[in-house]
Design a protein that fits this description.
Length: about 350
């Protein structure tokens, strides 16, 4: 039976005030972001004809851009919210890696937990775009798990950073690019438990089952479906909801997260705690580009969770933030004043 509650927990003036206060207090937090760092590159222009050589569009290129991406974009979102951020990840000992690390430092972030590895190249995703629309993406990467030696070097760097200063939360951003090997995941979770630091996780499929006992687990629909082997026919909403209920109950029982935040794209978000299972609808938006929306959701959720905002309420705000960044082309961080204004506009319910 589908036990999802879609009406519980009306948004009250007190909820609004707590969420706004937590967002405005983000500058009191220090958060460690650990995960797959990458460069988001853009080749921008316009298409006005088809190639005579093959049935493909010709892009008249006019601009190139490079931005921190992957876990680095999560860090940018946290920084945009006002938090102090330390970044941890593996890059190549190459120019792309040096440029990425410098870009993070230029944004005022600490990169003491970044390791540069000589036998690995920095991940670069190049998006070819015309008029805000994606035409093609080119990935340059080494995405195998870090070997034992590199994993140990990375863990030692993380241990040094954790020993040097206190953190309010650890955010793990897994893009399946290999920095988060099983050794790194298990070691980092152990260090977090020893220091009583809450951990939030944005998982991918490869190591989905290694993130156990965390404070917040944030899969999207595909990740939950693939990670748990859930089955339903596409278009059968009833079967999907039943499968999701079964999957979330299994996740709670076997992985033991304190909270699960399941993002469902145009269907909104679903929040599973040990006592509640609530689905919240998406906020109406003009969707231009979904790239990076998940990064924004986990960043906002982490800032609120670190300050004790309850799961269903932080989901409301994080869901709103994810929709806001979809209104802009490319991967961009959240704008705090815009988010605060949108939170204030959320309808109050009796």
């Amino acid at each position: 039976m589908d036990t999802t509650n879609t009406t519980q927990n009306a948004w009250s003036p007190e909820d609004c005030d707590r969420a706004i206060a937590a967002l405005q207090n983000a500058d009191a937090l220090r958060i460690l972001v650990v995960g797959d760092l990458m460069v988001d590159a853009y080749l921008l222009g316009r298409v006005d004809r088809i190639s005579p050589e093959a049935p493909v569009p010709i892009l008249r290129a006019s601009q190139r851009e490079r931005r921190p991406g992957g876990a680095a974009n999560v860090a940018l979102n946290l920084k945009a919210l006002g938090a102090a951020v330390t970044v941890g990840g593996a890059i190549g000992n190459d120019q792309d890696g040096k440029d990425l690390q410098q870009a993070l430092e230029d944004q005022g972030m600490d990169t003491d937990a970044v390791v540069a590895l000589k036998d690995r190249r920095t991940t670069v995703k190049t998006r070819v775009m015309s008029g805000g629309q994606h035409l093609l993406r080119v990935d340059e990467e080494d995405d195998g798990d870090l070997n034992a030696e590199d994993s140990q070097q990375f863990l030692e760097q993380l241990a040094s950073v954790l020993a040097a200063r206190p953190f309010d939360a650890i955010l793990i951003e897994d893009y399946d690019k290999g920095a988060l090997s099983p050794t790194v995941i298990e070691g980092l979770l152990r260090m977090a438990r020893e220091r009583n630091i809450p951990v939030t996780v944005d998982p991918k499929f490869r190591h989905f089952d290694l993130y156990r006992g965390v404070a917040l687990f944030k899969p999207n629909l595909k990740e939950l479906r693939d990670g748990l082997g859930l089955l339903w026919e596409d278009g059968d909403e009833g079967a999907m909801n039943r499968a999701l209920t079964e999957g979330l109950n299994r996740l709670q029982a076997e992985w033991n997260p304190e909270n699960v935040l399941l993002t469902l794209s145009e269907r909104g978000v679903r929040v599973k705690t040990r006592t509640e299972d609530v689905q919240q609808p998406a906020h109406p938006r003009e969707i231009l580009d979904v790239s990076g929306a998940g990064d924004t959701v986990i960043a906002v959720a982490t800032v609120l969770l670190a300050q004790g905002v309850e799961a269903w309420s932080l989901a409301q705000v994080a869901n709103l933030a994810g929709g806001l960044v979809c209104e802009k082309p490319g991967v961009v961080p959240i704008d705090l004043p815009t988010l605060l204004a949108e939170v204030r506009r959320l309808p109050i319910q009796a």
